[in-house]
Amino acid sequence: MTIDQAQLLRTYAEAADTAHQALTALDQISGDGDFGDNLREGLRWTVAALDARPQEPAMAVAGSVFLDKVGGTSGPLIGLLLSAISRALTDASDEREGWATGVREGLAAIQRVGEAEPGDRTMVDALVPARDALDAGASYADGARAALAGAAATADIRARRGRASYVGDRALGTPDPGATGIALLFWALARVAEPDSGLGEVNELVPVPGKAG
Question: Mean pLDDT, to the nearest integer, of 156-174?
């Protein structure tokens, strides 16, 4: 099965829309509150670009949109990841290896630019377990579970990088929004590639902080 990149990105866009309130609330606790907007708008622009340029590789289109149009710290970093995945998928003879290579190289690019390490409470904390799972030959669903677990674990981390590092212990108990948003990429990948994998729904996996039910 060849994964439909455009469908994956549309699924990611739907996930970002569903999770927008939660991601915004998380970022209001640990940042400046714009991450939900940036991710949602970047993916909406991506979908529009895909409609206008259907002949171009979808992940490459997404990478260019995030690099060129999405603001904040997260936009360019997500653009680096998506662009690396696009290049790896183009070059790889095996799609699974392409995803593993793309995530590995995208993570390396993000770390070169942002200098974050695991345990700094950033998107790196979702990317590292996803990379490790895919490098080990795990299913896409297991990669998504690893990313989601990595993002959830940031709730127990005092930030050492990014805006959250300025708020001290205030963010403890809630996961990092960037890690959570990146984990949704892997959720979308698994949803498209392995639809019977049993992953939960976005509103269950990314609840609004403090909202019962």
Answer: 63
Half-sphere exposure of 119 (CA within 13 A, CB side): 0
Q: Is the pTM of this model over 0.90?
A: yes
Q: Give the tens place of pLDDT for each residue, 110-144.
A: 999 989 999 999 999 999 999 999 999 999 999 99
211 located within any domain = no
Q: Which structure tokens are listed for 145?
A: 């579970």
- Is 106 inside any structural domain? yes
**CB distance 130 to 164 below 8 Å:** no
Q: What total number of domains does the chain contain?
A: 1
Residue numbers of the domain that contains 61 = 5-196
Count of helix runs (H) and strand runs (E) in the chain: 10, 0
Q: Tokens 């995530």 identify what position?
A: 103
Per the document, the length of the chain is: 213
